[in-house]
Amino acid sequence: MSKQQTNMNILVRLSAIGVLTLAGCGTTMESVMAKCDNNTKYDTYAACVKTTYMAEGVSPDDHSVRGFFAHIDAIAEAYRAEKITDAQAKSQTFDAYSKTIQVSNDRAAASISRSMNSRSTTPIDVQSTMPKPTNTNCTRIGGIVGC
Is the dihedral of CA 49, 51, 57, 62 positive or negative? Predict the structure, then answer.
């Protein structure tokens, strides 16, 4: 891979992150999860993640966020039934994030990358759009031209 392609890939990734972050002018789920993780019990943590993201999040109505929240509800249910520990619940929450929101973010970034790459690598074929010169063997005899 050339240096120009590497620089383009870096630019595409940064652009994708910027678009995903700034599209809703809000806080990312990663930062909400970090903000809420202050050694509290899982129920408090899960409620903090959901309410904070709904109030400040980039895209709280996105399908991947709704899927993530469904995972949080199921994990909280298992936690309250004492089927899993606090640590297991938080670990499962990070796994759920990876399987929902992170997958969605990665797909969006890949789509942007493909779009940028297809635009930048398609050669412009100027030669095929210009009229081709025609070589003819014409002669003029008096007022008549014959080819």
Answer: positive
Tell me the two tokens of residue 146. Answer: 């014959």
Rounded-to-integer distance, Cα 128 and Cα 72, Å: 57
pTM for the whole structure: 0.60
Q: Which residues pair with 27 in a beta bridge?
A: 57
The Cα 81–Cα 137 span in angstroms is: 94
Residue 134 φ then ψ, to 5°: -115, 125
- Interatomic CA distance for residues 113 and 84, integer angstroms: 40
Please state whether beta strands 139-141 and 144-146 pair in parallel, antiparallel, or not at all (unpaired): antiparallel
Using an 8 Å Cβ cutoff, are 96 and 64 in contact? no
Give the torsion sign (CA, 116, 10, 22, 44): positive
pLDDT tens-place string over residues 45-75: 999 999 998 988 878 788 889 999 999 999 9
Residue-wise pLDDT for 95-144, tens only, equals 999 999 888 888 888 888 887 776 555 555 555 555 666 666 777 777 77
